[in-house]
Every structure is written in structure tokens, then in C-alpha cells.
Amino acid sequence: MRLLSAFAIGLVFGLGITVSGMINPAKVLNFFDIAGTWDPSLAFVMAGALAVAIPGYRMVLRSPAPRMEDRFQLPDMRVIDRRLVLGSATFGLGWGIAGFCPGGALPALGTGAFDVHVFVAALVAGMFIARWLRSRTLVATRPL
């Protein structure tokens, strides 16, 4: 049941990204081009997502536990550290340069466009590199 639920949620998300046009990198990049061909539609997509997510989270978090898990998996780290800032900056720069974010790139794979495949390959490579670097720093800083 969890797999079916995850599939349905991913399908709705992917359809929403596709219908809103956010799998088109030109549309996303035009949002960032304030001095040129600015397209505010991304702001409306984000506002619509927040309008659904905020009340949804408030409603769901009133429950003692999720329906298909023992407990909620919420972040317990509240510190804004160097890793968070660098990761956020890297995400933003990649989004601004390529016009894709991971959430929009995965549904865009269905278009068969070469640039989407390059982006997703770079995304996966970056995840492995980050995991490798993190494991090296954890080993280097581990007490003896």
C-alpha cells in the first residue's frame, strides 16, 4: 500500500509540474530574468503549492502518527550551518543556470530531451560525490 501511495503522490506532483509548464527550463529561466522577458507564472505555481501545503501540514501534524508509518520523520536540526547554506546556494545556482530543479527534471525525463538527461545525470553524480565527501569528512573528524 505504501508503494502505491508513493506512486500516486508522485504522479500527482509530476502532473502538476507538467501542467504548470515547470518542466520547461525556458519558463523557469524567464522567471529569473527580471530585466528581460520576466514570466511571473512560477511565483503563482509556488503560491498555489503553499496554499495547499501549509493547511495540509497543519492538518496532518495534528495526528499522533502518520497513517503508514510509526512516527513522523521531521528534521530535528534547527541550526543554519555552512552545509545548509552551501547546499542551498548550490541548489539555487543549478536551478538558475539549468532551469531545472530535481522535482521538475524527473517528470521532464519523459520528454526525452538531451539536456534533461544531462541534468539528471549531473544531479545523481553530485549526490554520490556529496555522499563520498561527507563520509570522508566524518572519518577525518571521528574521535580516536
Task: Please tell me about this protein's structure.
The protein has 144 residues and is mainly alpha-helical. The protein is 68% helix and 0% strand. The N and C termini lie far apart (45 Å). Keywords: Membrane, Transmembrane, Transmembrane helix. This is DUF6691 family protein.
Structural class comes to: mainly alpha
Count of individual beta strands? 0
Shape: globular
The residue-averaged pLDDT reads 88
**Count of alpha and pi helical runs:** 6
Q: What's the oligomerization state?
A: single chain
- The secondary-structure element order is HHHHHH
The N- to C-terminal Cα distance equals 45 Å
Proportion of residues in extended strands: under 5%
Q: Roughly how much helix do the residues carry, as a percent range? A: 55-70%
Integer count of domains: 1
Cα-atom Rg, whole angstroms?
Answer: 18 Å
The major beta sheet can be summarized as: none
Poorly predicted residue ranges: none
Give a brief rundown of this model.
With 144 residues, the protein is mainly α. It has helices spanning 2-19, 25-32, 41-60, 82-98, 102-108, 114-141. It has 6 helices and no strands.
